[in-house]
Amino acid sequence: MIKYLATIWETVTTLLTGMGVTWRHMVAIRRDNVTLQYPEERWPRPERDIGFDHNKYNVIRSRLHVDIDDCIGCLKCERVCPVDCIKIDTVKVLNRGADIPNIRHKGITSFGTKKALVVTRFDIDMTECCYCNLCVYPCPEECIYMTGGPNAEKHDIDYEFSEYDRNDLIYRFAKKVSDEDVTNATTETQEVTD
Amino acid sequence: MTVDQLIDWFPISATWPGLTFLLAVLICAVPVFLFIAVYALVVIYGELKISSFMQDKVGPMGQGVGLHAWRWGLLQPVADALKLILKEDIIPASADKKLFILAPFIVFIGAFIAFSALPFSQTLIIADMNIGVFYILAVSSLGVIGLIMAGWSSNNKWSLYGAMRSAAQIISYEIPAALSIIAVIMLTSTMSMQGIIQYQSGFIWGFLPNWLIFNNPFTFVAFFIFFISGVAECNRTPFDIPEAESELVAGAFTEYSGMRYAFFFLSEYANMFVVAGVAATAFLGGWQSPIPGIFNSPAWGLWWFMSKTMFLIFVMIWFRWTFPRLRVDQLMSACWKGFTPIALVNIFGVGIWYLTLG
User: Which of B179, B134, B133 is nearest to B343 (CA)?
Assistant: First the structure.
Protein backbone atom coordinates (compact mmCIF):
# COMPACT_ATOMS: atom_id res chain seq x y z
CA MET A 1 0.00 0.00 0.00
CA ILE A 2 2.86 2.36 0.92
CA LYS A 3 4.60 1.40 -2.32
CA TYR A 4 1.41 2.01 -4.28
CA LEU A 5 0.99 5.49 -2.83
CA ALA A 6 4.70 6.21 -3.25
CA THR A 7 4.44 5.31 -6.94
CA ILE A 8 1.48 7.65 -7.34
CA TRP A 9 3.33 10.42 -5.53
CA GLU A 10 6.41 9.93 -7.73
CA THR A 11 4.25 9.92 -10.87
CA VAL A 12 2.49 13.14 -9.93
CA THR A 13 5.64 14.99 -8.91
CA THR A 14 7.62 13.95 -11.98
CA LEU A 15 4.75 14.84 -14.30
CA LEU A 16 4.49 18.25 -12.65
CA THR A 17 8.24 18.73 -13.04
CA GLY A 18 7.94 18.00 -16.74
CA MET A 19 5.05 20.41 -17.09
CA GLY A 20 7.09 23.02 -15.28
CA VAL A 21 9.90 22.63 -17.80
CA THR A 22 7.61 23.14 -20.80
CA TRP A 23 5.87 26.05 -19.06
CA ARG A 24 9.16 27.81 -18.43
CA HIS A 25 10.15 27.35 -22.06
CA MET A 26 6.76 28.64 -23.22
CA VAL A 27 6.80 31.84 -21.17
CA ALA A 28 10.45 32.54 -21.98
CA ILE A 29 10.00 32.12 -25.74
CA ARG A 30 11.44 35.56 -26.47
CA ARG A 31 14.67 34.60 -24.73
CA ASP A 32 14.92 30.97 -25.82
CA ASN A 33 13.69 31.23 -29.39
CA VAL A 34 16.07 29.47 -31.77
CA THR A 35 14.26 30.10 -35.05
CA LEU A 36 15.82 32.60 -37.41
CA GLN A 37 13.02 33.87 -39.64
CA TYR A 38 15.32 33.93 -42.57
CA PRO A 39 14.21 36.47 -45.15
CA GLU A 40 13.21 38.94 -42.44
CA GLU A 41 16.08 38.23 -40.06
CA ARG A 42 19.68 37.28 -40.80
CA TRP A 43 22.60 36.19 -38.74
CA PRO A 44 25.12 38.97 -38.35
CA ARG A 45 28.13 38.13 -40.49
CA PRO A 46 31.04 37.14 -38.28
CA GLU A 47 34.11 39.36 -38.26
CA ARG A 48 36.68 38.29 -40.79
CA ASP A 49 40.30 37.94 -39.79
CA ILE A 50 42.24 36.66 -42.79
CA GLY A 51 45.68 38.03 -41.97
CA PHE A 52 45.32 41.31 -43.81
CA ASP A 53 42.87 44.14 -44.13
CA HIS A 54 40.29 42.54 -46.36
CA ASN A 55 38.70 45.87 -47.11
CA LYS A 56 41.67 46.64 -49.35
CA TYR A 57 41.32 43.51 -51.43
CA ASN A 58 38.38 42.35 -53.43
CA VAL A 59 38.17 39.00 -51.72
CA ILE A 60 34.39 38.74 -51.63
CA ARG A 61 32.86 37.37 -54.78
CA SER A 62 29.27 38.05 -53.93
CA ARG A 63 27.28 39.46 -56.86
CA LEU A 64 28.20 41.64 -59.78
CA HIS A 65 26.86 45.14 -59.77
CA VAL A 66 27.16 47.85 -62.39
CA ASP A 67 26.95 51.56 -61.75
CA ILE A 68 25.42 52.24 -65.16
CA ASP A 69 25.97 56.01 -64.99
CA ASP A 70 29.72 55.38 -65.02
CA CYS A 71 29.68 52.78 -67.82
CA ILE A 72 31.19 54.01 -71.07
CA GLY A 73 30.19 50.93 -73.03
CA CYS A 74 33.76 49.80 -73.85
CA LEU A 75 32.72 46.11 -73.91
CA LYS A 76 35.93 45.01 -72.14
CA CYS A 77 33.97 43.10 -69.52
CA GLU A 78 31.81 41.44 -72.14
CA ARG A 79 34.87 40.26 -74.05
CA VAL A 80 36.76 38.99 -71.04
CA CYS A 81 33.85 37.02 -69.59
CA PRO A 82 34.74 33.32 -69.93
CA VAL A 83 31.12 32.18 -69.91
CA ASP A 84 29.66 35.05 -71.96
CA CYS A 85 27.13 36.00 -69.35
CA ILE A 86 27.42 39.76 -69.97
CA LYS A 87 25.49 41.24 -72.88
CA ILE A 88 25.96 44.91 -73.79
CA ASP A 89 24.32 46.97 -76.53
CA THR A 90 25.34 50.54 -77.20
CA VAL A 91 24.17 53.42 -79.39
CA LYS A 92 26.36 56.32 -80.41
CA VAL A 93 25.43 59.73 -79.08
CA LEU A 94 25.34 62.96 -81.08
CA ASN A 95 27.28 65.20 -78.74
CA ARG A 96 29.99 63.47 -76.77
CA GLY A 97 29.75 64.20 -73.08
CA ALA A 98 26.31 65.78 -73.17
CA ASP A 99 23.50 64.74 -70.85
CA ILE A 100 20.34 63.45 -72.53
CA PRO A 101 17.62 63.94 -69.92
CA ASN A 102 14.71 62.19 -71.63
CA ILE A 103 16.55 58.84 -71.60
CA ARG A 104 18.27 59.71 -68.29
CA HIS A 105 21.72 59.46 -69.88
CA LYS A 106 24.61 61.07 -67.98
CA GLY A 107 27.30 62.49 -70.25
CA ILE A 108 30.31 62.45 -67.93
CA THR A 109 31.41 59.60 -65.65
CA SER A 110 32.59 60.06 -62.11
CA PHE A 111 36.16 59.67 -63.41
CA GLY A 112 35.58 62.63 -65.77
CA THR A 113 35.42 60.68 -68.99
CA LYS A 114 33.10 62.04 -71.65
CA LYS A 115 30.81 59.24 -72.80
CA ALA A 116 30.45 58.59 -76.52
CA LEU A 117 27.92 55.80 -76.22
CA VAL A 118 24.54 55.23 -74.64
CA VAL A 119 24.37 51.80 -73.01
CA THR A 120 20.91 50.56 -73.97
CA ARG A 121 21.37 47.05 -72.64
CA PHE A 122 23.65 45.74 -69.93
CA ASP A 123 22.49 42.28 -68.87
CA ILE A 124 24.36 39.96 -66.56
CA ASP A 125 22.96 36.44 -66.37
CA MET A 126 23.75 35.42 -62.81
CA THR A 127 22.76 31.82 -63.54
CA GLU A 128 25.76 31.62 -65.84
CA CYS A 129 28.17 33.83 -63.92
CA CYS A 130 31.07 31.81 -62.49
CA TYR A 131 32.22 34.54 -60.07
CA CYS A 132 35.72 34.60 -61.60
CA ASN A 133 35.96 38.36 -61.06
CA LEU A 134 37.75 38.72 -64.45
CA CYS A 135 35.34 41.41 -65.67
CA VAL A 136 36.14 43.62 -62.69
CA TYR A 137 39.84 44.18 -63.45
CA PRO A 138 39.73 45.56 -67.01
CA CYS A 139 36.96 48.09 -66.35
CA PRO A 140 38.54 51.52 -66.96
CA GLU A 141 35.83 53.30 -64.98
CA GLU A 142 35.66 50.74 -62.13
CA CYS A 143 31.92 50.66 -62.60
CA ILE A 144 31.49 46.87 -62.56
CA TYR A 145 32.38 45.28 -59.27
CA MET A 146 31.44 42.63 -56.74
CA THR A 147 29.16 43.99 -54.04
CA GLY A 148 30.32 44.28 -50.44
CA GLY A 149 33.86 43.98 -49.13
CA PRO A 150 36.01 46.86 -50.38
CA ASN A 151 33.04 48.12 -52.40
CA ALA A 152 30.70 48.15 -49.41
CA GLU A 153 30.40 51.93 -49.55
CA LYS A 154 29.24 51.68 -53.17
CA HIS A 155 26.86 48.77 -52.75
CA ASP A 156 25.98 46.65 -49.72
CA ILE A 157 26.90 43.02 -49.81
CA ASP A 158 24.24 40.91 -51.47
CA TYR A 159 24.96 37.25 -51.86
CA GLU A 160 21.47 35.92 -51.21
CA PHE A 161 19.56 36.31 -54.42
CA SER A 162 16.74 33.97 -55.22
CA GLU A 163 13.90 34.35 -57.67
CA TYR A 164 10.78 32.42 -58.59
CA ASP A 165 11.63 32.54 -62.29
CA ARG A 166 15.03 31.73 -63.71
CA ASN A 167 14.72 34.68 -66.10
CA ASP A 168 14.56 37.03 -63.12
CA LEU A 169 18.17 36.12 -62.39
CA ILE A 170 19.23 38.04 -65.48
CA TYR A 171 20.08 41.39 -63.94
CA ARG A 172 19.34 44.27 -66.28
CA PHE A 173 21.39 47.28 -65.31
CA ALA A 174 20.66 49.55 -68.29
CA LYS A 175 18.14 52.33 -67.80
CA LYS A 176 14.64 51.21 -68.67
CA VAL A 177 13.80 53.42 -71.62
CA SER A 178 11.98 52.64 -74.84
CA ASP A 179 13.93 52.00 -78.04
CA GLU A 180 12.01 54.80 -79.71
CA ASP A 181 13.23 57.36 -77.19
CA VAL A 182 16.81 56.21 -77.65
CA THR A 183 16.49 56.42 -81.45
CA ASN A 184 15.02 59.90 -81.23
CA ALA A 185 17.72 61.08 -78.85
CA THR A 186 20.67 59.72 -80.78
CA THR A 187 19.83 60.44 -84.44
CA GLU A 188 20.03 63.78 -86.27
CA THR A 189 16.60 65.30 -86.42
CA GLN A 190 15.70 66.47 -89.91
CA GLU A 191 15.91 70.22 -90.04
CA VAL A 192 12.58 71.42 -91.29
CA THR A 193 13.38 73.68 -94.18
CA ASP A 194 11.15 76.27 -95.57
CA MET B 1 -32.59 29.54 -24.55
CA THR B 2 -33.35 25.85 -24.67
CA VAL B 3 -34.81 23.92 -27.56
CA ASP B 4 -38.06 23.44 -25.63
CA GLN B 5 -38.49 27.19 -25.20
CA LEU B 6 -37.76 27.61 -28.89
CA ILE B 7 -40.51 25.14 -29.81
CA ASP B 8 -43.00 26.88 -27.52
CA TRP B 9 -42.09 30.25 -28.96
CA PHE B 10 -42.89 29.25 -32.56
CA PRO B 11 -46.45 30.35 -33.49
CA ILE B 12 -46.96 27.25 -35.69
CA SER B 13 -46.09 24.77 -32.97
CA ALA B 14 -49.70 23.78 -32.36
CA THR B 15 -50.58 23.16 -35.98
CA TRP B 16 -47.41 21.51 -37.27
CA PRO B 17 -45.53 20.12 -34.27
CA GLY B 18 -43.26 17.94 -36.41
CA LEU B 19 -42.17 20.85 -38.62
CA THR B 20 -41.61 23.06 -35.59
CA PHE B 21 -39.46 20.43 -33.97
CA LEU B 22 -37.38 20.06 -37.13
CA LEU B 23 -36.95 23.83 -37.43
CA ALA B 24 -35.98 24.23 -33.80
CA VAL B 25 -33.42 21.44 -34.00
CA LEU B 26 -31.97 23.00 -37.14
CA ILE B 27 -31.78 26.42 -35.50
CA CYS B 28 -29.86 24.85 -32.62
CA ALA B 29 -27.64 22.58 -34.72
CA VAL B 30 -26.34 25.06 -37.28
CA PRO B 31 -24.82 27.53 -34.78
CA VAL B 32 -23.30 24.64 -32.84
CA PHE B 33 -21.67 23.34 -36.00
CA LEU B 34 -20.37 26.79 -36.86
CA PHE B 35 -19.14 27.19 -33.30
CA ILE B 36 -17.24 23.89 -33.50
CA ALA B 37 -15.65 24.92 -36.80
CA VAL B 38 -14.57 28.35 -35.54
CA TYR B 39 -13.46 27.00 -32.17
CA ALA B 40 -11.41 24.28 -33.92
CA LEU B 41 -9.63 26.93 -36.00
CA VAL B 42 -8.82 28.94 -32.87
CA VAL B 43 -7.59 25.91 -30.95
CA ILE B 44 -5.55 24.61 -33.88
CA TYR B 45 -3.84 28.01 -34.07
CA GLY B 46 -3.33 27.96 -30.31
CA GLU B 47 -1.93 24.46 -30.41
CA LEU B 48 0.50 25.35 -33.21
CA LYS B 49 1.73 28.37 -31.30
CA ILE B 50 1.84 26.80 -27.84
CA SER B 51 3.61 23.69 -29.09
CA SER B 52 6.16 25.82 -30.88
CA PHE B 53 6.76 28.02 -27.87
CA MET B 54 7.26 24.97 -25.67
CA GLN B 55 9.89 23.76 -28.12
CA ASP B 56 11.62 27.15 -28.37
CA LYS B 57 10.31 27.78 -31.87
CA VAL B 58 8.10 30.57 -33.16
CA GLY B 59 5.42 28.54 -34.93
CA PRO B 60 3.60 29.73 -38.03
CA MET B 61 4.62 33.28 -38.89
CA GLY B 62 4.07 33.68 -42.62
CA GLN B 63 0.31 33.45 -43.12
CA GLY B 64 -1.65 36.53 -42.32
CA VAL B 65 -2.18 40.12 -43.26
CA GLY B 66 0.24 42.98 -42.95
CA LEU B 67 3.88 43.37 -42.08
CA HIS B 68 5.86 40.37 -40.98
CA ALA B 69 6.05 41.50 -37.38
CA TRP B 70 2.26 41.79 -37.26
CA ARG B 71 1.29 38.66 -39.13
CA TRP B 72 2.00 35.99 -36.51
CA GLY B 73 0.61 33.30 -38.81
CA LEU B 74 -2.93 34.23 -37.86
CA LEU B 75 -4.43 32.75 -41.01
CA GLN B 76 -2.55 29.45 -40.70
CA PRO B 77 -5.62 27.42 -39.58
CA VAL B 78 -7.64 28.95 -42.44
CA ALA B 79 -4.93 27.86 -44.85
CA ASP B 80 -4.95 24.39 -43.26
CA ALA B 81 -8.72 24.12 -43.61
CA LEU B 82 -8.58 25.29 -47.22
CA LYS B 83 -5.88 22.72 -47.93
CA LEU B 84 -7.98 19.91 -46.42
CA ILE B 85 -11.03 20.96 -48.46
CA LEU B 86 -9.06 21.08 -51.70
CA LYS B 87 -7.34 17.74 -51.17
CA GLU B 88 -8.33 14.76 -53.27
CA ASP B 89 -10.84 12.49 -51.61
CA ILE B 90 -9.35 9.02 -51.93
CA ILE B 91 -11.24 5.81 -51.17
CA PRO B 92 -8.98 2.76 -51.32
CA ALA B 93 -10.02 0.18 -53.91
CA SER B 94 -10.19 -2.63 -51.37
CA ALA B 95 -11.99 -0.58 -48.72
CA ASP B 96 -15.48 -1.37 -47.51
CA LYS B 97 -16.89 1.65 -49.23
CA LYS B 98 -20.12 2.22 -47.31
CA LEU B 99 -18.53 1.95 -43.89
CA PHE B 100 -15.51 3.96 -45.04
CA ILE B 101 -17.73 6.87 -46.06
CA LEU B 102 -19.96 6.64 -43.02
CA ALA B 103 -17.25 6.38 -40.34
CA PRO B 104 -16.06 10.02 -40.12
CA PHE B 105 -19.63 11.24 -39.74
CA ILE B 106 -20.41 8.81 -36.93
CA VAL B 107 -17.29 9.89 -35.09
CA PHE B 108 -18.26 13.52 -35.58
CA ILE B 109 -21.87 12.98 -34.55
CA GLY B 110 -20.68 11.42 -31.30
CA ALA B 111 -18.87 14.63 -30.44
CA PHE B 112 -21.51 16.90 -31.97
CA ILE B 113 -24.60 15.73 -30.13
CA ALA B 114 -22.82 15.99 -26.77
CA PHE B 115 -22.88 19.77 -27.26
CA SER B 116 -26.64 19.78 -26.82
CA ALA B 117 -26.27 19.24 -23.05
CA LEU B 118 -23.38 21.64 -22.41
CA PRO B 119 -24.49 24.63 -20.31
CA PHE B 120 -22.79 27.61 -21.97
CA SER B 121 -24.40 30.05 -19.56
CA GLN B 122 -27.38 30.41 -17.21
CA THR B 123 -29.79 30.64 -20.14
CA LEU B 124 -27.82 29.24 -23.05
CA ILE B 125 -28.21 25.48 -23.13
CA ILE B 126 -29.84 23.53 -25.92
CA ALA B 127 -31.48 20.90 -23.74
CA ASP B 128 -31.23 20.93 -19.95
CA MET B 129 -32.00 17.25 -19.51
CA ASN B 130 -32.43 15.75 -16.07
CA ILE B 131 -29.89 13.12 -17.14
CA GLY B 132 -27.44 15.60 -18.70
CA VAL B 133 -24.14 14.15 -17.45
CA PHE B 134 -25.29 10.61 -18.14
CA TYR B 135 -26.31 11.61 -21.66
CA ILE B 136 -22.91 13.18 -22.39
CA LEU B 137 -21.04 10.17 -21.04
CA ALA B 138 -23.22 7.91 -23.15
CA VAL B 139 -23.01 9.73 -26.47
CA SER B 140 -19.32 10.50 -26.21
CA SER B 141 -18.62 6.76 -26.41
CA LEU B 142 -20.47 6.66 -29.72
CA GLY B 143 -17.25 7.76 -31.40
CA VAL B 144 -15.73 4.35 -30.72
CA ILE B 145 -18.15 2.75 -33.19
CA GLY B 146 -17.06 5.19 -35.86
CA LEU B 147 -13.39 4.58 -35.11
CA ILE B 148 -13.81 0.81 -35.36
CA MET B 149 -15.76 1.28 -38.60
CA ALA B 150 -12.96 3.43 -39.96
CA GLY B 151 -10.30 0.95 -38.93
CA TRP B 152 -12.15 -2.06 -40.25
CA SER B 153 -13.29 -0.58 -43.54
CA SER B 154 -9.88 0.82 -44.43
CA ASN B 155 -8.66 -2.75 -44.95
CA ASN B 156 -5.26 -1.81 -43.61
CA LYS B 157 -3.36 -3.31 -40.71
CA TRP B 158 -2.38 0.04 -39.22
CA SER B 159 -5.97 1.21 -39.29
CA LEU B 160 -7.24 -1.96 -37.66
CA TYR B 161 -4.57 -1.86 -34.96
CA GLY B 162 -5.41 1.76 -34.26
CA ALA B 163 -9.14 1.05 -34.13
CA MET B 164 -8.75 -1.90 -31.76
CA ARG B 165 -6.45 0.09 -29.52
CA SER B 166 -8.78 3.07 -29.42
CA ALA B 167 -11.74 0.84 -28.64
CA ALA B 168 -9.88 -0.77 -25.75
CA GLN B 169 -8.67 2.60 -24.52
CA ILE B 170 -11.92 4.55 -24.74
CA ILE B 171 -14.02 1.80 -23.15
CA SER B 172 -11.47 1.41 -20.33
CA TYR B 173 -11.26 5.10 -19.57
CA GLU B 174 -15.03 5.51 -19.60
CA ILE B 175 -15.04 3.69 -16.26
CA PRO B 176 -12.86 6.02 -14.13
CA ALA B 177 -14.49 9.01 -15.84
CA ALA B 178 -17.98 7.81 -14.97
CA LEU B 179 -16.97 6.79 -11.43
CA SER B 180 -15.48 10.21 -10.70
CA ILE B 181 -18.64 11.85 -12.06
CA ILE B 182 -20.66 9.65 -9.67
CA ALA B 183 -18.82 11.34 -6.78
CA VAL B 184 -20.14 14.65 -8.09
CA ILE B 185 -23.67 13.38 -8.56
CA MET B 186 -23.69 12.04 -4.99
CA LEU B 187 -23.12 15.55 -3.68
CA THR B 188 -25.39 17.45 -6.06
CA SER B 189 -28.16 14.80 -6.12
CA THR B 190 -28.92 15.75 -9.72
CA MET B 191 -27.62 14.76 -13.14
CA SER B 192 -28.89 17.93 -14.82
CA MET B 193 -25.97 20.06 -15.94
CA GLN B 194 -27.64 23.28 -14.77
CA GLY B 195 -28.50 21.61 -11.46
CA ILE B 196 -24.87 20.64 -10.90
CA ILE B 197 -23.76 24.22 -11.55
CA GLN B 198 -26.47 25.72 -9.34
CA TYR B 199 -25.21 23.53 -6.51
CA GLN B 200 -21.82 25.22 -6.80
CA SER B 201 -22.93 28.77 -5.96
CA GLY B 202 -21.72 30.71 -2.93
CA PHE B 203 -18.62 30.25 -0.82
CA ILE B 204 -16.96 27.28 0.82
CA TRP B 205 -14.35 27.33 3.59
CA GLY B 206 -15.16 31.01 3.95
CA PHE B 207 -13.21 32.34 0.99
CA LEU B 208 -13.15 29.81 -1.86
CA PRO B 209 -15.95 29.64 -4.43
CA ASN B 210 -18.10 26.60 -3.76
CA TRP B 211 -16.80 24.67 -6.73
CA LEU B 212 -16.84 20.93 -6.35
CA ILE B 213 -13.08 20.71 -6.85
CA PHE B 214 -12.72 22.63 -3.56
CA ASN B 215 -15.60 20.86 -1.83
CA ASN B 216 -13.56 18.09 -0.24
CA PRO B 217 -10.31 16.21 -0.86
CA PHE B 218 -12.11 13.38 -2.65
CA THR B 219 -13.72 15.59 -5.29
CA PHE B 220 -10.35 17.31 -5.71
CA VAL B 221 -8.86 13.95 -6.68
CA ALA B 222 -11.94 13.08 -8.73
CA PHE B 223 -11.43 16.17 -10.88
CA PHE B 224 -7.97 15.03 -11.93
CA ILE B 225 -9.15 11.47 -12.55
CA PHE B 226 -12.02 12.72 -14.69
CA PHE B 227 -9.88 15.16 -16.60
CA ILE B 228 -7.08 12.71 -17.34
CA SER B 229 -9.57 10.01 -18.33
CA GLY B 230 -11.19 12.59 -20.58
CA VAL B 231 -7.86 13.33 -22.23
CA ALA B 232 -7.51 9.58 -22.79
CA GLU B 233 -11.02 9.41 -24.28
CA CYS B 234 -10.07 12.15 -26.74
CA ASN B 235 -7.15 9.98 -27.90
CA ARG B 236 -4.76 12.80 -27.22
CA THR B 237 -1.12 12.53 -26.25
CA PRO B 238 0.09 11.03 -23.90
CA PHE B 239 -2.79 8.60 -24.53
CA ASP B 240 -2.63 8.72 -28.32
CA ILE B 241 -1.70 5.11 -28.96
CA PRO B 242 -4.66 4.70 -31.38
CA GLU B 243 -3.02 7.10 -33.81
CA ALA B 244 0.57 6.85 -32.63
CA GLU B 245 2.33 8.43 -35.60
CA SER B 246 5.64 6.72 -35.01
CA GLU B 247 4.12 3.24 -34.79
CA LEU B 248 0.84 3.18 -36.70
CA VAL B 249 1.23 5.91 -39.35
CA ALA B 250 -2.07 7.56 -38.36
CA GLY B 251 -3.99 4.72 -36.77
CA ALA B 252 -7.58 4.46 -37.88
CA PHE B 253 -7.20 7.56 -40.07
CA THR B 254 -4.35 6.18 -42.19
CA GLU B 255 -6.38 5.77 -45.37
CA TYR B 256 -8.39 8.97 -45.00
CA SER B 257 -7.66 12.18 -46.82
CA GLY B 258 -9.21 15.53 -47.48
CA MET B 259 -12.56 16.39 -45.96
CA ARG B 260 -13.08 12.99 -44.34
CA TYR B 261 -9.79 13.31 -42.48
CA ALA B 262 -10.79 16.85 -41.54
CA PHE B 263 -13.94 15.48 -39.93
CA PHE B 264 -11.90 13.15 -37.71
CA PHE B 265 -9.74 16.09 -36.81
CA LEU B 266 -12.75 18.27 -36.11
CA SER B 267 -14.34 15.61 -33.92
CA GLU B 268 -11.12 15.25 -31.93
CA TYR B 269 -11.22 18.96 -31.16
CA ALA B 270 -14.96 18.87 -30.50
CA ASN B 271 -14.39 15.97 -28.08
CA MET B 272 -11.77 18.03 -26.31
CA PHE B 273 -14.31 20.79 -25.85
CA VAL B 274 -16.92 18.37 -24.52
CA VAL B 275 -14.50 16.85 -22.01
CA ALA B 276 -13.23 20.25 -20.92
CA GLY B 277 -16.79 21.55 -20.75
CA VAL B 278 -18.01 18.69 -18.58
CA ALA B 279 -14.95 19.00 -16.33
CA ALA B 280 -15.56 22.74 -16.01
CA THR B 281 -19.25 22.16 -15.30
CA ALA B 282 -18.89 19.35 -12.84
CA PHE B 283 -15.84 20.53 -10.91
CA LEU B 284 -15.04 24.15 -11.73
CA GLY B 285 -18.47 25.70 -11.33
CA GLY B 286 -19.40 26.03 -15.00
CA TRP B 287 -20.72 29.52 -15.53
CA GLN B 288 -20.30 30.47 -11.87
CA SER B 289 -18.04 33.46 -11.31
CA PRO B 290 -14.82 32.78 -9.38
CA ILE B 291 -15.89 35.55 -6.99
CA PRO B 292 -19.40 34.45 -5.99
CA GLY B 293 -22.04 37.14 -6.11
CA ILE B 294 -20.51 39.45 -8.72
CA PHE B 295 -20.09 39.05 -12.49
CA ASN B 296 -22.88 36.48 -12.49
CA SER B 297 -25.09 37.72 -15.35
CA PRO B 298 -25.76 35.29 -18.24
CA ALA B 299 -23.23 37.11 -20.47
CA TRP B 300 -20.57 36.84 -17.80
CA GLY B 301 -21.65 33.23 -17.36
CA LEU B 302 -20.76 32.55 -20.99
CA TRP B 303 -17.41 34.23 -20.44
CA TRP B 304 -16.64 32.20 -17.30
CA PHE B 305 -17.69 28.91 -18.90
CA MET B 306 -15.64 29.57 -22.01
CA SER B 307 -12.57 30.71 -20.09
CA LYS B 308 -12.65 27.68 -17.81
CA THR B 309 -13.14 25.34 -20.77
CA MET B 310 -10.41 27.03 -22.77
CA PHE B 311 -8.05 26.84 -19.82
CA LEU B 312 -8.64 23.08 -19.57
CA ILE B 313 -8.08 22.77 -23.33
CA PHE B 314 -4.84 24.67 -22.87
CA VAL B 315 -3.87 22.15 -20.19
CA MET B 316 -4.60 19.33 -22.66
CA ILE B 317 -2.30 20.99 -25.19
CA TRP B 318 0.24 21.45 -22.41
CA PHE B 319 0.02 17.71 -21.62
CA ARG B 320 0.43 16.84 -25.25
CA TRP B 321 3.67 18.73 -25.69
CA THR B 322 5.15 17.65 -22.36
CA PHE B 323 4.54 13.95 -21.91
CA PRO B 324 5.79 11.06 -24.01
CA ARG B 325 3.27 8.52 -25.26
CA LEU B 326 2.33 5.65 -22.93
CA ARG B 327 2.88 2.08 -23.97
CA VAL B 328 -0.27 -0.04 -24.39
CA ASP B 329 0.32 -2.00 -21.18
CA GLN B 330 1.19 1.17 -19.25
CA LEU B 331 -2.01 2.75 -20.51
CA MET B 332 -4.11 -0.17 -19.36
CA SER B 333 -2.36 -0.53 -16.00
CA ALA B 334 -2.73 3.21 -15.35
CA CYS B 335 -6.46 2.88 -15.97
CA TRP B 336 -7.20 -0.39 -14.16
CA LYS B 337 -4.63 -0.26 -11.37
CA GLY B 338 -4.49 3.50 -10.89
CA PHE B 339 -7.56 5.49 -11.81
CA THR B 340 -10.30 2.93 -11.31
CA PRO B 341 -9.40 1.92 -7.70
CA ILE B 342 -8.84 5.54 -6.71
CA ALA B 343 -12.16 6.53 -8.27
CA LEU B 344 -13.90 3.76 -6.34
CA VAL B 345 -12.27 4.84 -3.07
CA ASN B 346 -13.37 8.38 -3.93
CA ILE B 347 -17.00 7.33 -4.06
CA PHE B 348 -16.81 5.89 -0.54
CA GLY B 349 -14.83 8.89 0.64
CA VAL B 350 -17.37 11.34 -0.70
CA GLY B 351 -20.18 9.31 0.88
CA ILE B 352 -18.50 9.29 4.29
CA TRP B 353 -17.63 12.97 4.00
CA TYR B 354 -21.21 13.81 3.06
CA LEU B 355 -22.63 11.84 5.98
CA THR B 356 -20.21 13.09 8.64
CA LEU B 357 -19.24 16.62 7.63
CA GLY B 358 -21.64 17.66 4.87
Answer: B179
